[in-house]
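question for whoever is on the cluster today: can someone run the full assembly for these? two chains, 618 residues total. i dont have access anymore since they changed the login thing
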Amino acid sequence: MTTFLVKRGLQAIPLLIGISLLLFAMLQMTPGGPLASSEGTGAQNAARVEQIREHYGLDDPLPVQYFNWAGGVATGDWGTSFNTGRPVLTMIWERLPNTLLLTGAAFLLAIAIAVPIGVLAARKQYSWFDYVSSGLSFVGVAMPSFWLALMLLFVFSYSLGWLPSGGLEDLRADHEGFSAVIDRVRHMILPVIVLAAVSTAQLARYVRGAMLDVLQQDYVRTARGSGLRERTVIVGHALRNAAIPVVTVAVLTIPELFLGSVVMETIFAIPGIGRLFVESANLRDYPVLLGILMIGAALVVVANLVADIVYSLLDPRIRYAS
Amino acid sequence: MRLRTRKPPLTELHGSLSRDAWRRFRRHTLAVVALGVLGVLLLAVIVGPFVLDAEPERIDFGSKNLPPTLAHPMGTDELGRDQLARVLSGGRLTLAVATAAVLVAALLGVVVGAIAGYWGGLIDNALMRIVDVFYSLPSLFVVILLVTLVGASFGTIVAAIAAFTWMNTARLVRASYLSLKEREFVDAARSLGVGDVRIVVRHILPNALTPVIVSATLGIATAILTESALSFLGLGFQPPHATWGGMLNESRDAVTNLGHWWRGFFPGLMILVTVLCVNYVGDGARDALDPRKEER
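^ ran it for u. tokens below:
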């Protein structure tokens, strides 16, 4: 088992190197460049542009630039922003908690809603509950999240005035202690619900499918036949086995939620990683862009790794040859 | 005297593969309804702007910010432009981008998958590692980046979306080629002296296309949602051209600060209905094209 974990973990390294090469090459291939807006604005500027170019090492050969950057990433020096002049890692670090809070809350909410719905729908297949929840989850998967966000803002913020329309805290009021927490929660309600909606729909469909597979198995009939309570059969026997594929899919939704936060942060004006990314893209701030892309890629790779590992831990039938 | 009675030809019993598939597809009521709705939508988007009296870019300050009425079923915006006309012409652009992206992605996926699956070995290994890398990229971020840096145009947006949706097709096609290349009809073709390229294109490809059709259909849904998200972030086509996502982006202030709900409601509803129908059709096609799949 340990050998498998180590082996599987080591496989992630060449993958991340490949990703970093591709991302780096992609930025180099796009026309323009970080200094596109400064170039061609007169002769006295040419010298200045050259100076900047040299300062940031932009005149080095590309392989040298790549190794300088990749070596820095590996040792914790992610370069400095072209725009603010501050270390990239610091800038990301400031924004990360907001995005993580949003992603994490949405993830928990999605699981808390999707699992009971999926189980109940499978338990009562072809009932009205099954039809309604399956229909809703189909709609949920097809729903553009930003549209849901706009409509909820119209209802709960504009029409009813119950919830704030954006930001992280009420700037007009001075909240302290407990009321500051309440204020923050009120600001997070809509973004979290909207971000969770699509994943909830996906997961609920998946849970239903996995439960239907398991409920057909002989051991479930045996468990029922031996007079166990329905609740014990569903929760103790069926759900535990249905959980194996579900956990894998659930882990893989985490990077999706992280990506989806770009849109949520833009609509709800939350200063997180996604907003930073869009701002940096407009400013062609390459070090920041590369940093965020690497974090996103690492999240995808790690989520896949965790999904694999959890799968092998949960399913006793899988034993990897060491 | 002939004792053997004539067997009815096979075609009478089963019909062709496509007729069989259509028969199975029709059992899927929702998929048939969805296909009908998509047909109506497509017709409306293509023919609508010619038939409709209102032009998408005609500015009319006399009738601005109107809620839905009979004259303007989807209301008007702050310039008095008819929203129905804009939704129809925007739908053209949305659907054109999505279709083009899916076609490009399918082509790329088929080529990569066929090469990897047929020739195998080192090429296969290298190509599949590239697929792994693309799978691990945070796709929405990279699409945003490409479109921002290169500039939003039809080609850029299509290419950026296609660049991150071809991998699934490549894996499916590779798997088909891996098993199909061992079959007798390929041996037969080879023993007749047919070249590799001809075997790959003429003999194996038609047999490997079924999963591509399904994944391409479902890919349209992803492409529409990605393009809409991109346009919603203000990174898509520049005004006056607006896809449904672009109209949603323009409507943000009107919906959340002025309460003009119709500005955002209808473009988003169009996205929802289209994606929903595409998903139903894709699901129906998957069941119809796979004869081995049993009914649930």
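summary bc i know u wont read the tokens: The two ends of chain B are 49 Å apart (CA to CA). Residues 25-48+82-288 of chain B form a domain with the MetI-like fold fold (CATH 1.10.3720.10).
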